[in-house]
Amino acid sequence: MKTIYLSLLFLLLKTVSCYGQIGINTTLPQAIFHVDGKNDNANTNVTHSQKESNDIVVTNNGNIGIGILNPTNKLEIKTNDSNTGLSLLNASSQSKVLISDKDGNATWSFPERKARTSIYSITGVSSLIGNINNMAKYDKFLDVKIEDVKGIFGDQYGWDIVKQQYIVPIKGIYRISMSIYLESGLLSDYYKIGISKGNNAKQLMPNMPYISIVSEEKDKLAYVTGLAILNKDDILEIKVANQENPNSPVKIIGGPEYSTLLIELVKQIR
């Protein structure tokens, strides 16, 4: 008989659901789960925002509140300080924003920004000897007028005046525009001027427009612009060659009205 009574009691307890609130450091919890960090809430239903600042609650609909007792979002943080009260730290979080993918996963990424680098060449004439397989480097872009890249991504990126290189800060689509003023050469001189990719690369970057011009014994101003997909840490340099007469110099006239370079980040590729 005792066995029967115990079995009935066990079955009865299994069918009973328990409802209640859990309060830690408080005798009057304001939610299903309520932690009062400093035990400074009054023992009444009247609350004070200053005293809520050290509280954490979980409501009956699954919302979590930090510093607030009635959160309306899945996670809601309220603080009286000047910052957000939210800190997500890892090795790549500095100066970045959270970006979500198609599945809602959040990762740190640079905010979408248009970053420009504009450089003028210094006044003077440079004579460069180079052939199509071993092009010469033009190294007179010394007058930086606009440099957004260093301020956004760091001093190691953008235009390096000493090495005369552009270091790509982030993978993306870049617009590269260049004007070059060429002094007259031999009638048959055939000049090529463009962008190489790689440290001390000998040839022009594939699939990127370049200046191609015949001297005809006349001074000429040439301009080219194009788009390229570049990866972070790619290195760009300005290269020149005389394809038809490789032993005859390519003479570039420098100066703000003559030879200029503009590199723009058009769109990041994530």
Structure in words:
The chain is 9% helix and 40% strand. It is mainly β and 270 residues long. The protein has 2 domains: 2-87, no CATH class; 116-268, Sandwich (Jelly Rolls). Strands 8, 9, 11, 14, 17, 19 and 20 form a 7-stranded antiparallel β-sheet that branches. Strands 10, 12, 13, 15, 16 and 18 form a 6-stranded antiparallel β-sheet that branches. Strands 1-2-3-4-5 form a 5-stranded mixed β-sheet, with no helix packed on it. Strand 6 (97-100) and strand 7 form a beta hairpin. It is rod-shaped and about 105 Å long. 26% of the residues are buried. The model has no long low-confidence stretch (mean pLDDT 87).
Question: Would you kindly provide a brief summary of this structure?
Answer:
9% of the residues lie in helices and 40% in strands.
